[in-house]
Amino acid sequence: MGQITTTSKPAKSAAKVRSDWAMYLKGNWDLYLMLAPAVILIAIFAYWPMYGVVMAFQNFNPISGITGSPWVGLMHFERFFATPTAMRIITNTVVLSVQTLIFTFPAPILLALMLHYCVSRRFARVVQTATYFPFFIATVVLVGMMHIFFSPSVGMVNHAIEALGGQRQVFMADSVWFRPLYVGSRVWQGTGFGAIIFIAALAGVDPGLYEAATIDGASKWKRILHIDLPCIMPTIVIMLILSLGSIMSVGFEQVFLMQNARNTAVSEIIATYVYSMGLLEGRFSFAAAVGLFNSVVNFALLIIVNQISRKVSETSLW
Amino acid sequence: MSAKKRFRFFSSDITFDAVNSVLLILVFLVVAYPLYYIVIASFSAPELVLNGRITLFPQGFQLDSYVRVFENPDILRGYWNSIMYTVVGTAINLLVTLPAAYAMSRSDLRGRTFFTLFFAFTMFFGGGLIPTFLVVQQLGLLNTFWVMVIPGALSVWNMLICRNFFQTNIPSELLEVSQMDGCTNRTFFIKVVLPLSKAIIAVMVLFYAVGHWNSFFNALIYLRDDALMPLQMVLRRLLVMAQPDPAMGADMMEDWVRMMMEVEMLRYALVVVASVPVLILYPFVQKHFVQGVMIGSIKG
User: Fold this and answer.
1) Do B275 and A137 touch (CB under 8 A)?
2) Among B19, B147, B216, B261, which is least packed by CB within 10 angstroms?
3) By the CB < 8 Å criterion, does A115 face chain B?
4) What is the ipTM for the molecules in this complex?
5) What is the CATH code of the structural domain delimited by B66-297?
6) How does the average pLDDT of chain A come out, rounded?
C-alpha cells in the first residue's frame, strides 16, 4: 500500500521529481522503516480481513479458500433477514445499546459537574480516585462480582431484599433483569473514567466568567446551566457522536459472559450471534454476512451523525 | 463595589452544596463498598459470608481461601501465562507503536495523509470476527502463544495518542540542530525523542499492559489448549460458569451445594488475587491514565 503513494504522488512531472524523491529517501528512508511494522500489521490484521469479507457473498469453504469458493450473491443476507432471529437480535442490540447510552452518556457529565462543585477538594479527589478504579477491573471479574452480589441463594442483594420482606430474585438468570443489570454495571464501571475528559474540560472554563456571573447574582445552579454546560458543549458533542456512531456495536465480552440459557431471549445480540453461528457452528459465510451487515450499519451511522453534527453544531470528527 | 456584595451567597447555593455532598457520598459508597466487601469477605469464614453476616468488618478470619487459590494448578498456570502475555505483549506493542507514532508525527513525512487515512479508517470499519479468524488461521497462529500478542500488536488509537504527544512535546528545532550535526532520524528517535517521552511511554505501558492482563476475547476465540489459557479464561470457568442451576432436583442439589460452597469460598479470594497486579499499579496508573486520556483527547 505504501508503494502506491511513492509512485503515484510524484507522477506530476518527470525526472526532476524522481531525483527529488531519491534525495528525500536517502535521508529519510529510516522513517519508513519505523513505520513498516505498524503498516504491515494493519495490512494483515485489518485490511486482509476486509478483503476476506467478500466471503459473505460466497459459499465459503476453507479448503478452496476465497478464490475457489462459489459466489452466491446476497443469499446469506436474504437468509438472515428471513429468520425470525434476525429481527430479534437486531432489536436486542439496538435496545440494549440505546438503554446503555441513555444512562452511560449523561452519568460522566453529571459526575464531573458534581466533582467540580464539590465543597471539599480533598473529598472530590477521593471520590474521583475511587470511581476510576472499576474501569481497570477485568470484564470477567466484573461479571464474577455480579454473580457474587446477585446470587439467588447467598448474594448480598437478595439477603437485603429478603430482610426488607421482598421476594428473592434469580437476577443473573432472568431475562427481565438482564438489561438493568447490564446497563447498571456499565454505569458502575465506566462513569468515573468517562468523567475524566469532562473534568478537564470544566477545569478549562475561564474563571472570569464565574466571577462575572456571581456578581450578576447567578446561583451555582444557574452557573452550571449558563456557563459550564455551554463551555463543555464541544466535548459533549464529540463524545456523543462517538457513542451514537457505535450504537450497533454493543461490546461482545460482557454480554457473552452474562449470557445463559435463561436470558438468551434478550441477551442474544448481533455480536454473540456471529460468534455462535460462525465459530461454534462453522457457518462462516453466513456469520460473515451478519457481521458485515453490522459493520456497514455502524459505519453509515457514524458518517450520518458526523454530518448532522457538522451542520448543526459545527463540531465534527473530521 | 463592597466585598460583601462581591461574594454574595445564595440560599439556593446552600441547598445545592448539601444535595451535591450527599450525592457524592452516595456515589462513593456505591463504587467503593462492593470492592471493600469482596476484600473483607475473602478473609472471612465462608459460612458467615454466605449467610450475609459480613457487612463492615471481616469475621472468622481465615487465609484458607487464598491457600486454596494458590494450590489450584489451573489458576497458577493461568497466572503465569497471563504474566507472559502481558510482558511479551506489551514489549511488542511498544516496539511497534512508538517508532510508527514518531514517523507519523513528522510533518515532513511524505505520504503522511495517506498513512493517516490508512490507519484511521480501521478504527471505524473492520472485516469482522469471522474473516479475521480465518486470516489468523491461515497464518498458522491458531492455538499458539503468538496469537495472544501479534494480532493486537498495534492499537491505532494508542499510536495516535503517541503521535499527538510527539508533535506537541518534541520541538522541531531540536531535530534541526541534530540534523546539522549529521544525526539520522533513527538515532534522533532513540537518543533524543525516547528519553524526552518517558511520560507517554509510561502511559502506553499501562494502557497496553492492563489491556493484556484483562483480555479474554482472543483466548476465547483463538486458543484451545488448556496449557495456553490466560488467567481470565480460568476465572471465567470459576467465577462465571460455575453457577448452581435453580431447576436442579433436590438430590443433586446436595452435591452441588457442597461443591458450590467450595467454589463460593474461592470466589472472593480469586477476585482479589486476579486484581492484585492492577491494584499494585493503580496509584501509578491512575495519574498516568488521566494524562493519557487528556493527550488522546487533543484533536490531531
Assistant:
1) yes
2) B19
3) yes
4) 0.87
5) 1.10.3720.10
6) 87
CATH 1.10.3720.10 placement within chain A: 75-313
Report the distance separating Cα A110 and Cα A123, nearest Å: 17
**pLDDT, tens digit, for every residue of B212-238?**
999 889 999 999 999 999 999 999 988
pLDDT tens, per residue, chain A with 318 residues: 333 444 444 455 677 888 888 888 888 899 999 999 999 999 999 999 999 999 999 888 888 888 888 899 899 999 999 999 999 999 999 999 999 999 999 999 999 999 999 989 899 999 998 998 898 899 999 999 998 899 887 788 888 888 898 888 888 888 899 999 999 999 999 999 889 889 988 988 888 888 888 888 888 888 898 899 999 998 898 888 878 777 777 778 899 999 988 898 999 999 999 999 999 998 999 999 999 999 998 888 888 888 888 887 776 766
Instruction: Give the DSSP letter string of B122-182.
Output: HHH----HHHHHHHHHHTT-TTSGGGGTSTTS--HHHHHHHHHHHHHHS-HHHHHHHHHTT
How far off is chain B from A269, nearest CA to CA, in Å? 14
- Residue A279 sits at the chain B interface (C-beta within 8 Å): yes
Between CA B202 and CA B286 the distance in angstroms is 11
**What residues of chain B lie within 8 A of the CB of A294, using their CB?**
128
CA A238 to chain centre: 14
| Closest of B290, B30, B25, B204 to residue A194, by C-alpha | B290
Contact (Cβ atoms closer than 8 angstroms) between residue A218 and residue A209: no
Which residue of B lies nearest to A224 if distances are taken between CA atoms?
A: B16
Mean pLDDT along residues B5-27: 80
- A307 and B CB contact within 8 Å: no
Q: How far apart are the CA of A220 and the nearest CA of chain B, in angstroms? A: 6
**Residue of chain B nearest A160, judged by CA positions:** B52
Residues B151, A40: Cα–Cα separation, whole Å: 11
β-strand partners of A71 = A58
Contact criterion met (CB < 8 Å) for B294 and A124: no
A210 CB within 8 Å of a chain B CB? no
The set of cell numbers assigned to A224 is 452550571
Of A243, A307, A2, A235, residue with least CA distance to B119: A2
Cβ separation A117–B264 shorter than 8 A: no
DSSP A138-172: -HHHHHHHHHHHH-TTT-HHHHHHHHTT-----GG
3-state secondary structure B171-192: CHHHHHHHHHCCCCHHHHHHHH
Structure-block grid coordinates of residue A120: 471539599
Chain B interface includes A37 (CB < 8 A): yes
Check B216 against A253: CB less than 8 A apart. yes
Domain covering A75-313 assigned CATH 3.60.70.12 in the classification: no
DSSP β-bridge partners for residue A58: A71
pLDDT digits (tens, 9 = 90+) for A229-259: 999 998 898 888 878 777 777 778 899 999 9
Q: How many CB atoms lie within 10 A of CB B174?
A: 14
Our CA-based measurement puts residue B87 at a distance from the nearest CA of chain A, in whole angstroms, of: 17
- Reference A35, options B178, B188, B295, B163; nearest CA is B163
Domain boundaries, chain B: 3-62, 66-297
Which chain B residue's Cα is nearest to A195? B290
- Give Dmax over CA atoms of chain B in angstroms: 84
